[in-house]
User: Fold this.
Amino acid sequence: AIGRLLKEAVVSTQSTGDGEELVGELLEEMMGGVMKVIHEKHIDEQCIPHSLAWTQNIIEKLVVWQFLAYDEGESNLDEWNEDSEPERTPLDSWGRGSVPCRLVEVREV
Assistant:
């Protein structure tokens, strides 16, 4: 079927003179098919190594988490000083209660 279509395309381009367009379209179609097959093969080849690397990473994290190392801490507790109190942060205009409100007294007439 492709040979027949190609023959018809060649005959039509000989009469109209659009040979470069036909070659460009054929080349684009062929390259698209080839690149699709190469991409699928690449994905198939990389699926197992990626899955194994991901699984190894998760298992390593679980082992490290399960067997936490003992931290002996600081030996000279006398050198420790109490931290100073942090400075107050400025009010945020979007925070609740940060915008002052004025109450207006209603007088009955």
Q: What stands out?
A: The mean pLDDT is 82. Residues 59 and 65 are 10 Å apart (CA to CA). The radius of gyration is 37 Å.
